[in-house]
Amino acid sequence: MVYGIIELINFAHGDLFMLGAFLTLTLIGWLGLAEGGGAGTVAGIVFMIAAAAVFCASLNWSVDRLVYRPLRGAPKLPRSSPPSG
User: Across residues 9-36, what is the average pLDDT?
Assistant: First the structure.
């Protein structure tokens, strides 16, 4: 999580893209593409690119809805209560 110049929380998108890469590696194992060769490999690669794109897009959309939207109207710094004593 990064708090940048624009004073908004920024969840580094590299982390989310990394999850897409892990999904792709998992699909390589499940589809048996590690051996390579043939037209099935090309179809598998096209499928993996589409699956990773849909996965990363839905993950980014979920982060936006669950994290960013509630914070957009919030004050920049939380108000602190006076110390009790």
Answer: 82
Residue 3, SS3 per DSSP: strand
In the three-class reduction of DSSP (H, G, I as helix; E, B as strand; rest coil), residue 10 is classed as: strand
How many beta carbons lie within 10 A of that of residue 24, not counting itself?
A: 16
SS3 52: helix
Round to whole Å and give the CA distance between 66 and 27. 27
Residues 25-56: pLDDT tens digits? 998 888 888 777 777 788 888 888 999 999 99
State percent of the chain over pLDDT 90: 14
Q: Nearest CA to 3 among 73, 11, 55?
A: 11
Gyration radius (Cα) of the chain, Å: 20
Side-chain-side CA neighbours of 44 within 13 Å: the count stands at 18
- For residue 18, the SS3 value is helix
